Every structure is written in C-alpha cells, then in structure tokens.
Amino acid sequence: MNLTVRKREESLGWGVLVVYLGALALAFGVCALLLTLAGKPGLGGMLILFRGAFGQGYSLLDSLTKAVPIFLCALGVALSFRMQIWNIGAEGQFALGAVGGAWAALTFAGLPGIVLLPLVFLCAMTCGAAWGLIPAVLKLRLGVSEVITSLMLNYIGALLLEFLVFGIWRDPGSFGFPMTAEFSSGAQIARIAPGVLGKLHWGVLACPLAGVAYALFLSRTRLGFELMACGEGERVARYAQLPYGFLVLLVLGLGGALAGLAGSIESSATLGRLQPTMLMGYGYTAIVVAWLARLKPWPIAFTAYLLASFRVGVEVLQLELQVPAAFGSIMEGAILLFVIAGQFFLSYSVSLAHPVVAQAKGARP
Amino acid sequence: MSPELIIALLAAAVQAGTPILYATLGEIISEKSGVLNLGVEGVMAFASFAGFFVCLVTGSAWLGFLAGGLSGALLCGLHSLVCQVFLGNQVVSGLALAIFGVGLSTFFGTPFVGQSTEGFAKFALPGLAKLPVLGPILFQQDALVYLCYLMPVAVWLFLERTSLGLRLRAAGEMPAAAAAAGLNPRMLRALGTMAGGFLCGLGGAYISLAHMHLWATGLSGGRGWVAVALVVFAFWRPGRAALGAFLFGGFMAFQLRLQATGTNIPSSLLLMLPYALTILALVAPAVRARAAKGGAGAAPAALGVNIEPEG
C-alpha cells in the first residue's frame, strides 16, 4: 500500500461541505468527550448547547447581536491574513476603539446624536487604527514580527481600559464598580425594536456596509488586487515591485479601525457605557472565524453568526450544567484545529495508487 | 533598599525566570527543527493544571512535574499532526492550540481553584549555598531551579553536539536537503515539536508546583508568549535564552514587589510593564541587528515553512 498525495487541480466542489461538516462533527465529538471527562453528560450537554444556540427566537437574535463585533473584527483580521500579515491584535484594537469612543462620548456628551455618534465612531476607528499601526511600523522599520507585538498590545489595551475605568473615568455614582457614567442619549445606539427584535440594535447595519466595502475593495480596486498579489509573501511582493510597506500599513490600520468600530458599537449599543466586562474575547473568536471562512466575506458573515450562536449556547450550558465559560474556548480551539487539518483535503488529493501507476495515467503535467 | 532585600529580590527573580527558561528552551528546540509553535501559552496553561492534578492525586511532586512535561508533549503532538501530516498553517494551528490549551486548563481546573499543594520545597545546596551573595540567590532554591541551571547546557549540547540535534537542525534549515540525505524531515519536525512541548510543559508545571504551590485560573499569565518572544531575543541560542529569561524574571519579581509594597502607581499600569517589556525584547535585538547589518541571530531558514509533498 502506498499513499500518494498530489496537489488538487480543480476545486473539490460539494466535497468542501463534507470536509467542513466532518471537521465540525469531530470537534463536537471531542467536546462531548471532554464534558464526559469533567463528569457532565457529554451528548446531553452538547444538545443543551445546540438548543440554547438555535432553539428559540431570542437566542437567534442574541446570536445576531453578538455576531456584530465578531464579524467586524474578523473582516479586519481577514484583510491582513490575506497578505500573510498575522494580526492577532483585534482584541486590543477593539478595546482601544471602545476607549476612543468613550472619550468622545464623555467629552462631548451634550451634542445631539446626529453629530455625536459619528464623532464617537471616528474617534474609535482612529484609536483602533493607531493601535493596529504600532505592530505595522515595528515590522516595517525594524523587522519585528507582528505576531507577538500585536498580541502583547491586546493585554496592554485591556489594561489601559481597566486603568481608565478604575481611575479617572470611574463614575462616582457607580458604588465603586469599575465603569464610566452612562453615555448621554446622543452617544447611544438605539435598539431597532426592543419588543420584537430583542437586543438587536442599529449597529448591525455596520456589518453589510463593511462587508460590501471589503468585497468591493478586494475585487474592484487596484490596491485590492495588489493586496491579493502580496498573498505569496513579502519576497514575491517586493520582487513584483508591489507597494508592500504601504499595504502592511493599510491592512493593519484598516483592521484596527474595523475592530475599533466594533468596540465602540459594543459600548454604545449593548452596554451604554465603558466597562471591562465588554472584553469577551471577540477579537480571538474573530481569528477563528476569519480562518474558517478562508478569508472570504460571505463565509465570514455566516461563520461569525455560527460562532456567535455557539457562544450563546455555551452561556446556556453554563447556567444549566455549571460548565465553566472556558468551554467556549475549547470548542473554538478544537473546531479550528480540525478545520485546519481538514483543509488539507481541499488542496490535496490522497489516493492509494502506487506513484508510478499514477504517473502512467498521466495525472501529472 | 537594604542588601538583604536586594538579595531576596534577586532570588525571587531566579524563581520567576525558571518557568520562562524551560519554555524558551522548548520553543528553541521546536523552532530549530523548523516548526513555529505559537501554542506555548496554551501548553503551559494546561501543563500547569496537569502537573498540579497529578501531584494532588498521587502525592508525588516529581510525578506531577513529569505529567506536566508529558501533557505538553501530547498537546504539541496535535500541532505536529496538523502541520506535518495535514500541512496546516503553523501560525494558525499554534494560535488554535493556545486557545484550546488555555480553555482546557480553565475548564478542568475550575473545581480545584484555591486548593494548594506542597509541591517542591526549597533546600540549600550543600557548600554552594554558603557562598556570599550568590549562595542565597542561586543555591537556596528548589530542585527544579537547579535542574534548570543545567538545561541551557544540555539543550546546547543536544542541538550542537549530537547527531540527532544535527538532523533536527537540518529539518529546520533545509528540509529538502535533509530528505535527499535519506532523513525524514517531517518525523524530525514532529519530534522537535514534541520534545519542545515537553520542556514547555515542565515550565508550566513549575508554576503550579514550585512557584505558586496552589491552583488558580490563568496561572501561566502570558509567560508562554514571553517565551516565544525570548527565542527571538536569544537569537535561538540556549545561553542567551537563560540571560533573557532571568532578566525577565527579575523584572517580574521587581514588579510584584512594587505592587506588594503599595506604591501610588495603579496596578493596571504596573501589570502592563511585562507586556511592554516583551515588545522591547523583540525590538532591542532588531535595533542591534540593524546596526550590525544582520548576520548574527538569524532564524532557521525554513522556520514556519511546511514541507510540501512531492508531485
């Protein structure tokens, strides 16, 4: 017996679905096994999770609301992954965006919403972009890998947010809780229809806007085309005289701006104030989403929703079976590991034939 | 500051640097074989629990330490499987491992939060502990610290002076040439990743068994990422890794002391410093390399590049 591995000539078609479903099923299997190991019902636990995620109308709406920050962060992450820039700093850029937005919201509290909200978004995107540009500049100027720097900035960004809400921005009327005062109504994003659509807010509109912009940018602009061409790595890009440095600044800046926007939407819509509990790891989930979706906008939207609903499901599981929230990370990690392994079958074919036979059939060009 | 206080601080620095050094050496072995493993944080987090758990169940600290190493090797086996067999992207697989491992650690560890363990006790090394200044800093520690002193030399000897080490480096520099010479670079890479994972796991177990003596969530606290950064700082050399790890340990000890004595500086700002220092640990050698026009301290040539199948 001899396994032959060859690069696939044509796409796998519907087989892609099989690969993804198989990977998901295996990941769920591992999760059920781990639940059993922890002394909880394995299969029953997973069923509770799915029922919590997809069972009721409000869980679907809750998932959609949670998918908003994940989608925006994932778009930003995907943009940089396109050219093999490993921006894993979405969580920190999200935090900085929230901080920037909160600054505008608290400083210009008296302005009407039509002026104040755009100002909040602008400040949020600027701060997020600035946070994203730090690893970009370090990479371009000094050749420092963006992986660790962007990650360290996550920790620093979260602590900066904490420093502010524990200190100078703390609401004197919060009985010592670390949070700012509630934003004025001009800086809050309203819910679309509180009675009917639950917590879903107008911030959800940012998603189609950003998604369409992302797709158009990559498929219709010269810069987007150049960015895609940089996917082969820095050496190729420089050889082809593409504006590599500029593109690195662009993807990390834009990614930071998107994550920053997500941060301010989260604080302005869901919480109405700035507080540390808003950092729920959406920025890390976004990385999982971007990679599962193979960096394409429609799949990103779908996957962001899917992983958001798993988060909702884990919350239910937490309540019903007292499973730690960390189960969510296990699930995301396992799904990602299985999908990365499964993606092998999308680009390679494996056959049992002897290599000589395969050659004789003319399978090789 | 009195001399006694400085000595106590430096002794604490050695202890704080020890888990980082184990992990940094582990990541050096992995990267030398061509595999970038960003999962160290997850590996350390899980191993710190696995070590604690086994020590609690068996009552043996040494078994716990070993279990930490084995669990690290096991988790990194996943990384090997994904990257060597299924040719997955090393960066993303490593991140997935980090997310997975940290999750596992909290998931299984939550029922044990607050429990403590004897673990490893400190003892004076006969003779050496009597040395002025150096004695109390270096030789009144636990057994794992003493073991850690030997590790950089051991890792260096392994990589530079054994034939297996040479093969491992070949897999990291020129896997195609290694394959042409009749070696199996993928197997070598899997071996390097898992051996490195074993050391990272030892580092993780050190935190719960010898440093903290208790279980709490998030014990690894970003040390795994520090280790990944220190590999670059160390130019992939075990000796410089020791320098980096103990410098970092010194900094962590100093920061903790500042917090404990109650300064006016808010704790969130103090807590930022290790992360800022990690960035600095990457920037400093980059500045130096720029001044020296490259040369010293290059990464293994095929680091992070997967071995494609022929045909």
Which descriptors would you attach to this protein?
heterodimer, A: about 375 residues, mainly alpha, 15 helices, globular, B: about 300 residues, ABC transporter involved in vitamin B12 uptake, BtuC, 2 strands
Strand portion of chain A, in percent?
under 5%
| Biggest β-sheet strands, sense, barrel of chain B | 2 strands, antiparallel
Task: Estimate the global geometry of chain A from the Cα principal axes.
Answer: globular
Termini separation of chain B comes to: 67 Å
Number of self-contained structural domains of chain B: 1
What would the average pLDDT of chain B be, to the nearest integer? 92
Write the element-wise H/E pattern of chain A from the N-terminal end onward.
EHHHHHHHHHHHHHHEH
Helical/strand content category of chain B: mainly alpha
Biggest interface, and residues per chain? A-B, 55 and 50 residues
β-strand percent of chain B reads under 5%
CATH topology of chain B: ABC transporter involved in vitamin B12 uptake, BtuC
The side-by-side strand order for the widest beta sheet of chain B comes to: 1-2
How many beta-strand runs of chain B? 2
Widest beta sheet: strand line-up of chain A? 1-2
DSSP summary: helix tally of chain B: 12
The share of residues in helices of chain A is 55-70%
Number of helical regions of chain A: 15
